[in-house]
Specification:
Layout: H1 11-24, H2 29-32, H3 39-46, H4 54-64, H5 68-73, H6 77-88, H7 90-96
Length: 102
């Protein structure tokens, strides 16, 4: 897999990223909970034992201040744009001496 391809979204990765962001922001699992999302469910997601639905993922992303894309892949939309630009960059082609292949 190249650096430019997003990682496959797996339950463990989603949970790990969610937990890291929650802790970095000084939040508790109960701070992420809503009427529809229990603290226990947040714990299961963080532990990689449950994969949240897109709707739950959107709520959790908002609560920790990130994008759904970041929770899924570890990269956000801006990272992907920068990565695509650098891959297509003439500087990259000059530095490697070979054109970008498709």
């Amino acid at each position: 897999m190249t650096d430019q391809q997003p990682q496959v979204a797996d339950s463990a990765g989603i949970g790990r990223r969610l937990r890291e962001l929650r802790i970095a922001r000084g939040l508790l699992q109960q701070d992420l909970a809503t009427a529809e999302i229990s603290t226990s469910y947040v714990s299961l997601i963080e532990g990689g034992k449950r994969r949240p639905s897109p709707a739950v993922l959107a709520v959790l992303a908002e609560r920790v201040g990130t994008s759904v894309e970041f929770l899924l892949t570890g990269r956000d939309e801006n990272d992907l744009k920068i990565s695509a630009w650098s891959w297509a960059s003439p500087r990259w082609r000059c530095a490697t001496g070979r054109p970008r292949s498709r």
